[in-house]
Amino acid sequence: MAHAHGHAGHSHGEENLSDRQLVFAVAINVLLTLAQIIGGIVSGSLALIADALHNFSDAASLGLAWFARRMGRRPADKLMTFGYAQGEVVAALINLTTLLIIGFYLIVEAVNRFAEPQPVEGWTVIWVAGIALIIDLVTAFIVYRGAHDSINMKAAFLHNVSDALASVGVIVAGVLILLYDLTIADLVITLIIAGYVIWQGVTLLPRTVRLLMGAVPDELEFDRIVAFLESQQGIESVHHVHIWNLGEHHRALETHIVLSSGSLDDFEILKMSVKEQLARRFEIAHATLEACKAHDCSTDLVPPHHSSG
Known about the structure:
Elements: H1 12-16, H2 19-43, H3 46-72, H4 87-115, H5 122-144, H6 151-180, H7 184-212, H8 222-231, E1 235-246, E2 250-259, H9 264-282, E3 284-292
Parallel strand pairs: 2-3
Antiparallel strand pairs: 1-2
Helix pairs in contact: 2-3, 2-5, 3-4, 3-6, 3-7, 4-7, 5-6, 6-7
């Protein structure tokens, strides 16, 4: 799990994966996409075009991640008071939505092609898919270094790995066409690639949407945090508890605290202690704690929820 940082902090993924490497990965994937589309048209292979479209989504996702990372480094301003870190999550949503559209498009194309079979040139398929496999593996190696703590990079890395598998599948289809004239193999591989693309999109989409909707971060249990706050000496109860992510890695909390006793000075000391423990135990670096009297705080302001346990 990534450590909490201030607004200007960079993730470990940014240290491991430079912008220059990211731009290089985008460039070779765009060139590969063009080569695969030309190869697919020349050979008549739908599987090759399927692999090309999947590859193009890789290039687009890497390009979006690069843009979002640059934007995310911008400091907070009067327009974006929390900073621009959420831009990378928006980029992931665009990338995953595009991935799903491509997957369904490929299924429709494969069904249409099954109804009206076309000849496929096996050798062209094998050569282009072989080049694609090498580039996919190189890109996956580059992107892997940044994939540990970024949903964008994780999506891009999984795309590249599946691209490499798809290229292997396309090579197998080419060999079957050459040896046994099994043109149907091209359509079967296309459907497998499409299914895998859709599965990837559906798997990563829920977490991306939750991040954008300000959901409680996956690793955090709402009940545990409320119990921790209410167990602190000097706190009678807590209300208006809100926990959300600032971007993908920075977490925030705000809550109203009903004090059991003590002066305003005591509350300042308590607040410092609670903030330090929230950062250490739950990696919540941005906490806003507001004191209120019991009769000013209605008791139903902890939102209804279900335990994640």
